[in-house]
């Protein structure tokens, strides 16, 4: 499904991310966050127009809101910005202790609900959760999570995929698009020791792409959980991915700096671009009201 030669691009913005995450394509620009650097990056794919916005707290994720601003998961809960990203209001206070937990990955579902999860800094015990924001507020959808991560929905909107990184498991659930309810939790894929599933995304063929932290690769799984391909990457810690570009056929992969000098790469913290022979769904704006 992939072109024979990937195109890696650093998207020449002022500085590399310390911990790049959460790529989002709004139809015109690619956006992603630097969790540790507390920044939101925005760029054309040719890097002709780039913007870096400082954020008031450490973002686990940020998604465009239907009102024109952004909705972000900060350590203490959900916040919504104005269009200019100069003012923020808190929508929801996280129930976890801030000294041990923070909000991590998040994404909008096909109806504009926002799904997001928490993680512990220690990443040892299953003390975190998956949440959903809709018109009724925030509800806890899944408990006993260690590190909430990569999530997306199948093209027919009947299956929800969700990653708990530390147990190295990607779960699948039945998904009711009308209500947003999930059920029938089952194991979709499990990584061997040493490879940590991080962020991920779905393509139009119904295959799930999973970035492997500590693994220098991204893996494409078929809808029945079989490994379809393994794509080696020039970064030790790829973090998340999204389909971008005019026809959404380019896979954008965020990455983090490596703490192991023996694994360091010139691409660490950059966004990698791979031209594929598939594509991904369009993004749904968050409906935070």
Automatic annotation (TrEMBL):
GO biological process, one term: L-ascorbic acid biosynthetic process
Cofactor note: Binds 1 divalent metal cation per subunit.
Molecular function as annotated in GO: calcium ion binding; gluconolactonase activity
Co-factor(s): Zn(2+)
InterPro entries: 6-blade_b-propeller_TolB-like (IPR011042), SGL (IPR013658), SMP-30 (IPR005511)
Keyword Ubl conjugation: no
Domain SMP-30/Gluconolactonase/LRE-like region: 19-257
Matching PANTHER family: REGUCALCIN (PTHR10907:SF47)
Protein name per Swiss-Prot or TrEMBL: SMP-30/gluconolactonase/LRE family protein
Domain of life of the organism encoding this protein: Bacteria
Pfam families per record: SGL
UniProt KW keywords: Metal-binding, Zinc
Organism whose genome encodes this protein: Brooklawnia propionicigenes
Binding residues for a divalent metal cation: 21, 149, 198
Assigned protein family: Belongs to the SMP-30/CGR1 family.
Residues annotated as binding substrate: 102, 104
Active site: 198
């Amino acid at each position: 499904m992939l072109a024979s030669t990937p195109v890696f691009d650093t998207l020449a913005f002022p500085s590399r991310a310390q911990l790049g995450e959460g790529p989002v394509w709004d139809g015109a620009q690619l956006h992603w966050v630097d969790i540790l650097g507390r920044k939101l990056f925005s760029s054309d794919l040719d890097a002709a127009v780039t913007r870096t916005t400082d954020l008031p707290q450490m973002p686990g994720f940020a998604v465009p809101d239907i009102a024109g601003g952004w909705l972000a998961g900060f350590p203490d809960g959900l916040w919504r910005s104005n269009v200019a990203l100069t003012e923020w209001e808190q929508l929801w206070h996280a129930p976890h202790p801030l000294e041990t937990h923070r909000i991590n990955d998040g994404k909008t579902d096909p109806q504009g609900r926002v799904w997001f999860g928490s993680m512990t800094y220690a990443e040892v015990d299953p003390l975190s959760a998956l949440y959903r924001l809709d018109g009724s507020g925030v509800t806890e959808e899944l408990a006993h999570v260690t590190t909430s991560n990569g999530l997306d929905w199948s093209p027919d909107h009947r299956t929800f995929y969700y990653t708990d990184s530390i147990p190295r498991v990607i779960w699948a659930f039945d998904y009711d698009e009308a209500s947003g309810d999930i059920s029938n939790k089952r194991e979709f894929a499990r990584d061997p020791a040493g490879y940590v599933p991080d962020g991920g995304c779905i393509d139009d063929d119904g295959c799930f792409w999973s970035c492997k932290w500590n693994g220098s690769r991204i893996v494409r799984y078929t809808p029945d959980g079989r490994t379809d391909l393994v794509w080696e990457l020039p970064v030790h810690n790829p973090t998340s991915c999204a389909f971008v570009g005019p026809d959404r056929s380019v896979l954008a992969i965020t990455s983090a700096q490596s703490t192991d000098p023996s694994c360091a790469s010139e691409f660490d913290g950059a966004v990698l671009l791979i031209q594929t022979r598939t594509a991904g769904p369009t993004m749904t704006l968050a409906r935070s009201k």
